[in-house]
Specification:
The protein is an alpha+beta fold. The protein is built from 10 helices and 18 strands. Helices cover 33% and strands 27% of the residues. The longest helix has 20 residues, at 179-198.
Length: 349
């Protein structure tokens, strides 16, 4: 048991009082000796809420094909919401969020905390696959999920608000990144991938369009193809190699023409150790993230003249990124969220 509180089920003649007991994987409703209802925390189930004046007033569970609502103290209900978010899908919480940008309907504001957050729409199948992976992860380089909910037969995930722009757009706007910038970005990315692999997660599709860049920090925002696996293959490492190549050359790695890849690296004045590391990542199937992080590329220093030249480029990049629009990060086709509360709580119960 991790939470217990009182609730009541409203009736037209006499209300019934119960005890709600919350566990890691379920809640029960009844008395201490004999629960009358049991509801599992699974993403296939829906936990319904009744909201009034931006406050949770009651929760509802599906029982014998009908929704039964139970009234409780708002603070207890907020605790319940916090404990089971991402374990179960919610319903009727739309009015707790406000869409604040006409041009970007995915940008939301929490009506209570006033925190900014983002929203993305996905299928139930995607939700069932993606949420269990993300909810076990806790890393500053990985987007975090607040909760998921159902609205008009569609499923949504509310995420932290990241801001910034995609790494893809950053490279387009700054095609000649400094060595320091390239190394800082790939180092962060490899550390995130190392964390994923330590938790037996393969991202599988790491790409510059799936990474947000903001003020020298990166965050992976898309896990639609990620999987759990006890066997870690080289897919993520190769994708990181492609990204490092792209950072230095502003071009895509060519799988079929190594000579062209080499010429691109040469034309971009890519340091030799960087070139060596890229080809290792793209060809060595036995290399691990830990071994890559030990490569001399991450510790060598440029000579003073080269350092000065690259630092000047770095400063120009910094100035350009400071002028970028932070609202340009994620764009989705998301419908307007509207509430349509036509029944009172007593009518629902």
């Amino acid at each position: 048991m991790i939470l217990q509180f009182k609730c009541e089920r409203l009736h037209y003649i006499l209300n019934t009082h119960y005890i709600v007991t919350v566990y890691n994987d379920k809640l029960t409703i009844g008395n201490n000796s004999h629960p009358k209802y049991e509801y599992k925390f699974t993403l296939e189930n829906i936990l319904h809420w009744y909201v009034d004046n931006l406050k949770l007033q009651a929760f509802g569970i599906e029982y014998n094909k009908i929704i039964k609502f139970f009234k409780a103290n708002n603070k207890d209900l907020e605790q319940l919401r916090s404990l089971c978010r991402n374990l179960i899908c919610f319903d009727n919480i739309v009015e707790l969020y406000k869409q604040i940008d006409i041009n970007d309907p995915s940008k939301l504001q929490d009506q209570i905390s006033l925190q900014l957050c983002s929203m993305k729409v996905l299928s139930q199948q995607q939700l069932l696959k993606e949420v269990p992976i993300i909810r076990q992860l806790n890393h500053h380089g990985i987007i975090s999920y607040r909760e998921c909910f159902q609205y008009k037969n569609q499923y949504y995930i509310v995420t932290e608000f990241v801001g910034g722009i995609t790494l893809q757009k950053f490279i387009i706007q700054n095609p000649k990144l400094s060595h320091l910038q390239c190394r800082a970005i790939i180092l962060q990315l490899l550390k995130v991938v190392k964390y994923l692999h330590e938790h037996y997660v393969i991202h599988a599709t790491i790409d510059i369009c799936h990474i947000i860049y903001k003020s020298d920090f990166i965050k992976i925002i898309d896990f639609s193809e990620a999987i759990h696996s006890n066997i870690i293959d080289d897919k993520d490492i190769k994708n990181c190699g492609r990204i490092l190549f792209h950072l230095y050359t502003a071009k895509e790695y060519n799988e079929k023409d190594q000579e062209l890849n080499y010429k691109c690296l040469q034309n971009a004045q890519t340091p030799k150790l960087a070139q060596e590391l890229i080809f290792i990542m793209m060809s060595d199937k036995n290399i691990s993230i830990s071994m890559i992080l030990e490569h001399p590329y991450f510790s060598f220093s440029l000579d003073s003249e080269e350092r000065k030249k690259r630092f000047q480029k770095f400063q120009r990049v910094q100035r350009s990124t400071s002028e970028m629009d932070e609202n340009d990060a994620i764009s989705q086709s998301i419908p307007e969220l509207q509430t349509n509360k036509s029944k009172s709580l007593r009518q629902l119960m």
